């Protein structure tokens, strides 16, 4: 029986191609996307956002993965090339497909559907029956073999992963009307009218199938931006000029193809804004975080950096995640995520801080040059007080610096500091001089 199940799993894996969308300009995540695309944004002290969908694919047995990228792709490309290597016998790959000029088009990707359409020619060289389309900027853990199995069992043309959301919290999400047999009869992209939202509430039968509703509030099924297309259906659905799956392609298929919903019950966070990124990271510092990076059966893979263990000296630390290769001395850290190669000076206080760390350690010669130029080293200096902030990679913060967004409106401030969604952000490579207060 085990041999038959394994053979079925391997056969199914060869029928699936995974496609991860690299995202647009990421304006809502600015300034974290000032020098990188969304999937390349660091996460949880040592990972990148793109590690999540790639790891979910690998853990599900699907190792033929295309990553469609366009904006500020250099750091993403470096990360993928250093992180994901497959043996020559597995047939696995993570292939980056950036927007390119052709004899038919010299334009950039104009949306999710346009990006997939322009790469169908590259998919054709790989045997497959299904295309699994994923977002590159979400935090969740899913066994994709289950959605593929349901897609086959229901003989669907398109299966859309959906998650139950209270009706009061569905703003900005695509909602669907789902029958008790999981077929989709209506899809509304980001509705705002309460009457429309209320009309899309789940049926009592679906609610009962999902078990206890903790909120007691009516729930709607929101699209997770995860789609399974049968190969031929995808080709027909993209034989037009439609640019976006959620706004155009999916609604156009209603009544013309069999659309089904795969209902996902678990933690899922769309990391689309600075606030969402900030909250999702700090949630990982809780005693029982909503996302478990410690699951040995479904690990999250990333670049193996071979860094030394972090060193913490005489510190007061509470609810903190600390990445590899950090040196923290005589400081107080409360509710923080500290990224790889972070250096913190003596007598500093950090509260509700996401610090991304550094790309490399500075040499003594570089530090000497910094001192001669009156420039702080990488990391945070002595006697600093930083609250409710994101400190991006390679930032230099001098001694006696005070940073907090409290009481300040969103906007741009001195030394390239940005406050977005009530969170203070020091951009990548930012330099905050000694004694500065904001």
Find the CATH superfamily of the largest domain.
Spore Coat Polysaccharide Biosynthesis Protein SpsA, Chain A
Coarse shape: globular
Biggest beta sheet attributes: 9 strands, mixed
Distance between the termini: 65 Å
Poorly predicted runs? none
Instruction: Count the E strands.
Output: 27
Average pLDDT number: 90
- Rounded to the nearest angstrom, the radius of gyration is 23 Å
- Sheet-strand content, in percent, reads 25-35%
Structural category is alpha/beta
CATH architecture of the largest domain: Alpha-Beta Complex
CATH C-level class of the largest domain? Alpha Beta
Total helices: the number is 12
Looking at the structure, the CATH topology of the largest domain is: Spore Coat Polysaccharide Biosynthesis Protein SpsA, Chain A
Task: Characterise the protein shown here.
The structure is a single chain. The chain has 12 helices and 27 strands. The chain is 23% helix and 28% strand. With 438 residues, the protein is an alpha/beta fold. Strands 1, 4, 5, 6, 8, 9, 10, 11 and 12 form a 9-stranded mixed beta sheet that branches. Strands 15, 17, 19, 21, 23, 24, 25 and 26 form an 8-stranded mixed beta sheet that branches. A 3-stranded parallel beta sheet has the order 14-16-18, with no helix packed on it. β9 and β10 (184-189) form a beta hairpin.
């Amino acid at each position: 029986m085990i041999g038959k199940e394994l053979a079925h799993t391997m056969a199914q894996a060869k029928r699936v191609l995974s496609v991860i969308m690299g995202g647009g300009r990421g304006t809502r995540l600015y300034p974290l996307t000032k020098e990188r695309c969304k999937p390349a944004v660091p996460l949880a002290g040592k990972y990148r956002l793109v590690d999540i969908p790639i790891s979910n694919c690998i853990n599900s047995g699907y190792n033929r993965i295309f990553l469609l990228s366009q904006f500020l792709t250099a750091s993403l490309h470096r990360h993928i090339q250093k992180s994901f290597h497959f043996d020559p016998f597995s047939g696995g790959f993570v292939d980056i497909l950036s927007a390119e000029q052709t004899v038919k088009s010299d334009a950039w990707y104009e949306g999710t559907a346009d990006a997939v359409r322009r790469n169908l020619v590259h998919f054709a060289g790989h045997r497959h029956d299904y295309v699994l389309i994923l977002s590159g900027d979400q935090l969740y853990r899913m066994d994709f073999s289950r959605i593929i199995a349901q897609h086959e069992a229901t003989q669907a043309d398109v299966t859309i992963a959906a998650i139950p959301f209270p009706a009061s919290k569905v703003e900005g999400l695509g909602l669907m009307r789902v029958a008790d047999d999981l077929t989709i009869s209506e899809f509304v992209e980001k509705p705002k009218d309460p009457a429309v939202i209320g009309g899309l509430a789940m049926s009592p039968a679906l609610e009962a199938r999902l078990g206890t509703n903790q909120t007691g509030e009516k729930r709607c099924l929101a699209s997770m931006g995860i789609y399974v297309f049968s190969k031929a259906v995808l080709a027909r659905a993209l034989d037009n000029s439609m640019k976006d799956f959620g706004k155009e392609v999916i609604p156009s298929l209603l009544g013309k193809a069999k659309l089904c919903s795969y209902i996902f019950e678990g933690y899922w966070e769309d990391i689309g804004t600075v606030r969402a990124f900030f909250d999702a990271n700090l949630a990982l510092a809780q005693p029982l975080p909503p996302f478990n990076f410690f699951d040995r059966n479904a690990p999250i893979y990333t670049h193996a950096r071979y860094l030394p263990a972090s060193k913490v000296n005489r510190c007061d630390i509470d609810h903190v995640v600390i990445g590899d290769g950090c040196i923290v001395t005589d400081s107080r850290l409360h509710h923080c995520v500290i990224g790889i190669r972070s250096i913190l000076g003596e007598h500093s206080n950090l509260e509700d801080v996401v610090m991304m760390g550094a790309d490399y350690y500075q040499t003594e010669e570089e530090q000497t040059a910094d001192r001669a130029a009156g420039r702080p080293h990488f990391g945070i200096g002595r006697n600093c007080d930083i609250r409710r902030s994101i400190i991006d990679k390679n930032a230099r913060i001098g001694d006696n610096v005070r940073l907090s967004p409290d009481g300040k409106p969103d906007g741009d401030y001195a030394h390239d500091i940005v406050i977005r969604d009530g969170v203070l952000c020091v951009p990548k490579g930012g330099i905050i001089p000694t004694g500065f207060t904001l």
